[in-house]
């Protein structure tokens, strides 16, 4: 009820905003054995998508944070409207889907430790429907209405009553005739009967008495459905029908619930900012639009269709010119870093009647707060880009060309050499000629792998599962040596990354030949959009001891050339 | 922490009780398309067990109600101690299992509407471990301790240090030698290193310095593990070790948590009463003992091992002599009925300091209250049995022979002709010669089936899935007629129940020949225990229009003959 009252406020905020920041809290992250086991450092974007789809979509996105930012030019400050939505797939009726979702005790425990209020989700969460569910419910209402209205052509002629139902229907008609004779009685309640019988009654009555009576199905206290007939004149009948229609529309809107907010954000076409937002985007589409498509390219198309402009602040912070001056890209650390030089914290104020957050008190992990912080980080970084121009620009808008290189590229967690998922085209394909694929007994631990490769200096291990891992060597030349020396090993097996991928492709091609073909089709249609250049983050390197040399562009590559041409503010719309 | 403080109170209540009543609340009931679709009216007990195991065990039992009943002879009244435990599988440490469980939105919504407090589960639920998890944790502690103590025989001789680690270990020893020289220093912190290196250090030190130093692993603020060495005399060393051992035992107990309550109930061997308790029992064993066994006979053995005496009040109420005088066996209705003649509500009082429930206010669906009500129902029904004796017995104890016929028989929901799962022997095998198995297009609805069989008078439909159902006819003679007339039908197919079972067995036998053999083994070992006689509940019949005649015993059958022999109070122990 609260939601319904506040919805106009939400719509207004969406209407007037320059851009949004969003954040979701989930009932779990990964249903696999462990998150690290599921995210290999050498996942391809396709593999990562499949893993997240398979192991994360059964969790529930149950808190959605939205922060709308609007620039107040007169006072040179950003005005925010921040919302914290608790969502829950409350069954709408007996026939509505009974959603099952998974909870992961570590995630629940983490949220509990942050003071998360689970009762707000489970007792008063806002319901929602995805598009297919909404369509079905709308159809149900339409069908019910057309049935009540006499089902059109069907009942222009007498209904065929099955032999065994004739007596029943005759009795009903007799009852009604008696009822119509007695002027003092306004309504008649029939006995509860089956759905099939109710259908026959509706059809018979709309043929026999096209006017003058109103027929409706009600439920008794015992949840039995029965038909109630009342005498009405034509005007009254129409009024009742319109009333009923309005009521149904409202019920439908209530059931669609929170999805209406997501639709409004999507329809605005405005920039949506998130921090490490791939899972947020996947859950949002999965929960409020439709189950995620089988293949990554379809997901990309669907996502750009729903959210034409996304920006991931974690990717932005780990890309030049930021990554040299930002060490830690976690949201909390990023927010702190962006308060210091060379960055300049933006002037921000919450709109009247909206929660004002104090960034010093660190109410992290409430979705609305995290969204707010994410928005701040975006503004600081965007303004920093402006400060590099000559002459410097103090305030960079959400529609500036300066930030376009960061559009629709979602950060890929813990992938070593592919920084982002590119929603607007094919993904980067780094050479992995310094990488080995190793298979071994399941008793092996990380130390056994270090042992095995101790002759090769620094190595980087990236587990795939219990019995296999990728091992990257510091020099591509070492790869063949390792493969050769392992030829006669019995307990383990080493192959190059290329060999591994080749074999995997082979077994896949047989399985889904036709899917592959339709993929190529999609690829051909897409223009090749080069992404912003990504340098291996030297800090991360040292921490994790990744000594390999990145392929692709050599630093300094100048892909992100601030002085490569005339740069001016331009509307992207 | 509350739980730990109150545990002695719980133990005392269990210790002094005559019997217990229990009840569980779950995060969901069935993960299938719908509960009705999953529970066919002609399930065999084996099929029902498999369905519940497959579709219900991923939900969480998150509220456990326990009500301990003790009879106060001096004052002729029952004294109750009622508990409401919120349980949650909070991860105990980094290495503890990260449990995933499913929530069903309809169940959650139902509990929410009853005022259920989800924060009590998720924020302060009592943790628990099953027996395997407890064993593993105990082993981990033992291993850590034996490692710290010098790992016994392993380190009586020098450790083999891998070539590449020799330099590292030599440096560590050098550091320690220096540390031992300097009298003023009491502790030495080594740099963080890998688990493998820590193991080498432990082994080396316990061999080189069996006495005089204490070695332990601590975590830095950054969660890096490093070794700290301190100088201690033998006495101090022992004291520290004992302290650590006591602390570990406490941690272990905390982790086992709520399972300790279940163990105490089980170990008491006392009667445990529940209402429609099959799912409660399955969840309790699954969550606090071990994953449920693959086959039903193993489950029966396991259950009688854990809970030697179970009694299901729903089964009791639907069995003679009760079923003729009790129309509705739902807990709320049963409780009301048992307040009226010929029943006599028992005198019950809650013990001092325990919640006293008012049955008039109907706080249903809090597990502790439901358990309490269930206990009351049991007492009323047991006393009624006593009142039928001559001379009448006013108070029947939980150890009376009178209630033994009801032991270890769990009510089977919505199975038409098998009233209970028999934990102490093979299950009833009713003839089903009036039953047909029908296959049809998935567009068919119940009305289509009624249509199809309209010539056969009253029928009873029991859906199996989208495209098949059991249809029971009123006369076994009609079965062959139906099969014959359907021979040339194209859209549907009819076979007898016997044919259906035969084909199913055939395809199964191939799949699991050896399992079948081991089953027979179990069956042969079990004595055949006849259950209490069950009459078709005439009331239910009329409601659902089941016109078929039950096979087996004809009413009045006298299986439950109160006057068949000398009946006296006897301890069953």
From TrEMBL, chains A, B:
Keywords: Cytoplasm, Exonuclease, Hydrolase, Metal-binding, Nuclease, Nucleus, RNA-binding. It catalyses: Exonucleolytic cleavage of poly(A) to 5'-AMP. Residues 166-233 form the R3H domain. It is found in: Cytoplasm; Nucleus. Gene3D superfamilies: 3.30.70.330, Ribonuclease H-like superfamily/Ribonuclease H. It comes from the Eukaryota. Transmembrane segments: none annotated. Its EC number is 3.1.13.4. The keyword Metal-binding applies. The keyword Hydrolase applies. InterPro entries: CAF1_poly(A)_ribonucleases, Nucleotide-bd_a/b_plait_sf, PARN_R3H, PolyA-riboNase_RNA-binding, R3H_dom, R3H_dom_sf, RBD_domain_sf, RNase_CAF1. Belongs to the CAF1 family. PANTHER family: POLY A -SPECIFIC RIBONUCLEASE/TARGET OF EGR1, MEMBER 1 (PTHR15092), POLY(A)-SPECIFIC RIBONUCLEASE PARN (PTHR15092:SF44). This is Poly(A)-specific ribonuclease PARN. It comes from Rattus norvegicus (Rat).
